[in-house]
């Protein structure tokens, strides 16, 4: 019997580094601290969801500010989109796959430690 599990992936890109002033604009984001968290719908023996995450920093291209959006008008979704675009789809996929693999390993370990009792 195969067990089908679902893993929900969440991107947190709420912490950013900004230039105070650049090109006539204020609070220009140039770096995003990201955390990708996966949560499985499969529960561990204690009844908690299996989880894992990966963190990193992505530097954004600030060479063209022609479509600048004021910091106060930005949403978390905007910053997640910029971060993913800067990383590129293959890196986004690799990051999400790594988190999923770490959760899979928690649920179905490839190895374990045993102690001989005699």
What does this structure look like?
The protein is built from two helices and three strands; from the N terminus they run βββαα. The chain has helices at 76-87, 89-107, and strands at residues 7-22, 25-43, 49-59. It has a three-stranded antiparallel beta sheet, covered by helices on one side. β2 (25-43) and β3 (49-59) form a beta hairpin. The longest helix is centred in the C-terminal third of the chain and has 19 residues, at 89-107. It is elongated.
Write the layout of secondary structure elements.
Layout: E1 7-22, E2 25-43, E3 49-59, H1 76-87, H2 89-107
Antiparallel strand pairs: 1-2, 2-3
Compact summary:
The protein has 118 residues and is of the alpha+beta class.
Describe this protein with a few key phrases.
single chain, 3 strands, 2 helices, alpha+beta, elongated, 26% helix, 118 residues, 39% strand
The assigned structural class equals alpha+beta
Principal-axes shape call: elongated
Q: What share of the residues does DSSP label as strand, in percent?
A: 35-45%
N-end to C-end Cα span? 35 Å
Could you give the order of the helices and strands? EEEHH
Total helices: the number is 2
Poorly predicted segments: none
Residues in helices, as a percent range: 25-40%
Rg, Cα atoms, Å? 20 Å
What's the total count of β strands?
A: 3
């Amino acid at each position: 019997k195969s067990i089908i599990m679902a893993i929900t992936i969440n991107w947190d890109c709420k912490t950013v580094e900004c230039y105070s002033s650049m090109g006539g604009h204020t609070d220009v984001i140039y770096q995003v601290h990201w955390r990708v968290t996966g949560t499985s719908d499969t529960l561990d023996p204690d009844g908690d969801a299996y989880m894992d995450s990966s963190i990193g920093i992505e530097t954004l291209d600030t060479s063209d500010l022609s479509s600048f959006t004021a910091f106060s008008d930005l949403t978390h979704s905007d910053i997640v989109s910029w971060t993913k675009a800067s990383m590129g789809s293959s890196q986004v996929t690799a990051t999400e796959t790594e988190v999923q693999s770490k959760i899979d390993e928690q649920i179905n370990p490839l190895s374990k430690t045993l102690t001989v009792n005699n």
